[in-house]
Design a protein that fits this description.
By secondary structure, this protein is α/β, with parallel strands linked by helices. It has 2 domains: 32-182, 3-Layer(aba) Sandwich (Rossmann fold), CATH 3.40.50.1970; 187-391, Dehydroquinate synthase-like - alpha domain (Dehydroquinate synthase-like, alpha domain, Up-down Bundle), CATH 1.20.1090.10. It has helices at 2-6, 43-48, 61-77, 96-106, 122-135, 179-182, 187-198, 200-214, 220-234, 237-241, 245-265, 274-288, 296-316, 327-336, 350-359, 369-375, 379-391; strands spanning 15-19, 25-29, 32-36, 55-60, 82-87, 115-120, 139-143, 155-160, 163-168, 174-178. The protein binds zinc ion (2 copies). One zinc ion binds next to helix 9.
């Protein structure tokens, strides 16, 4: 019965609430989910239903040119009052300063904004979610690239206080993922989204490991739900590489479902495990030392290869029997879409990559393959091996 709920098309998974065999009540509420060719044409009619006093559209120079300008015109053509705030940077950083600038615009009392619409990907979505949440306003995200899994999430990673902090806020009221637009996104952004999705192999394996080794809560239904989207996306590698809108649609759905799976489960487990801990460690190190950090999904994809090797070694040494694909198979998929497969390709030094593997487990309380291997006294040995393989 509950399985059938999650087998509905994504556009119908907007307002879910059900009792699950795992003993939990799962619920998530997103007003509108529009994924597919031409989906961005529906922004104005959806906005009109909110009867907004005035709308603020947030974009950067790139996303405004690609789609924001068109959406702004669509809102005006529908008779809605709307302004745009376009960040002028070529490379916008999601830091406290940028959040503050958006906050100043969005809270302008004279304008009286009552709905925010972000047009962009991770950075604009994270900042607009946080600002709208603090102002108690609804917000929409009109996606421009299938680059990360935060569209349907509720937290915003922001560079603040010399590190990268997650601020918990609210879900988007509407998500528009126009695959005609997203399939034309920069190649490295599409490849990063693909890497973020493939990271779910070890995230889901870690979730099972946590249940087996530490009795942590796990929902098999949500795990299967995530795995289904992951497998469909992985099978679309060829199409993603060729920017086929249908394949990019599968990638986009997997990214949106990742956020939803976390929301439904009430834990980050379905979408984040040891591979995300390593990527996060590298980001924090970069911020602390004033360096730029790679696209989230690019570092997740590279870390995924190291952690799939860990699972292979652990099976060889009798530490687990949890199945994962081989690192070689996943590397072939990443290579197919042009995603990075070595730390050096994304500016992560050998020293940092080694330190991240050795120390990332301390960033999060969850049990993971990193903790499992450390408990068995094998952490240094496995780390030497993957660092040699991926960094030499
Ligand atoms: Zn459940
Ligand atoms: Zn991620």
């Amino acid at each position: 019965m509950t399985l059938d709920i999650l087998k509905r098309p994504l556009s119908e998974l907007t307002d879910l609430s059900f009792s699950c065999a795992c003993g939990h009540e799962h619920s998530i509420k997103i007003g509108t989910l529009a994924v597919g060719p031409g989906a961005s044409a529906r922004v104005a009619e959806t906005a009109a239903a909110y009867a907004p006093r005035r709308i603020l559209l947030a974009a950067d120079v790139h996303t405004f040119a690609v789609l924001g300008e068109r959406v702004l015109q669509q809102l005006k053509d529908a008779g809605l009052e709307a302004d745009a705030y376009v960040f002028p940077e070529q490379h916008l950083h999601p830091d406290a300063f940028a959040v503050g600038r958006l906050f100043l615009e969005a809270s302008d009392e004279k304008a009286g904004y009552s709905l925010l619409i972000a047009v962009g990907s991770g950075v604009l979505n994270d900042m607009t979610r946080l600002v709208s949440g603090r102002l108690g306003l609804p917000y929409f995200i009109v996606c421009t690239a299938p680059s990360m899994d935060g569209y349907a999430g509720s937290s915003s990673p922001i560079v603040c206080r010399g590190t990268k902090l997650s601020f918990y806020s609210h879900y988007a009221d509407a998500i528009f993922a126009d695959t005609d637009v997203m399939s034309r996104a920069p190649r490295e952004m599409i490849a990063a989204g693909f890497g973020d999705v493939l990271g779910k192999y070890t995230a889901l394996a870690d979730w099972l490991l946590g249940e087996r080794e530490r009795g942590e809560y796990r929902c098999p239904l949500i795990s299967d739900f995530m795995r289904g989207a992951l497998e469909t996306c992985a099978a679309s590698a060829e199409g993603v590489a060729n920017r086929d809108p249908e394949a990019v649609g599968h990638l986009t759905e997997a990214l949106i479902l990742s956020g939803m799976a976390m929301g439904l489960a009430g834990v980050t487990r379905p979408a984040s495990g040891c591979e995300h801990h390593i990527a996060h460690y590298c980001d924090i190190d970069a911020v602390a030392n004033g360096r730029d950090y790679p696209l989230h999904g690019a570092s997740v994809g590279v870390a995924e290869l190291a952690m799939l090797r860990f699972y292979e070694f652990a099976r060889r040494d009798g530490l687990t029997d949890i199945e994962t694909p081989s690192a070689d198979a996943v590397r072939a998929l990443l290579c197919k879409v042009g995603a990075p497969v070595r730390p050096a390709e994304i500016g992560i030094s050998t020293e940092l990559f080694r330190r991240a593997i050795l120390e990332a487990m301390h960033l999060r309380p969850q049990y993971s393959m990193l903790k499992h291997v450390a408990a068995a006294g094998k952490l240094e040995e496995y780390t030497d091996s993957v660092v040699k393989e991926l960094c030499d």
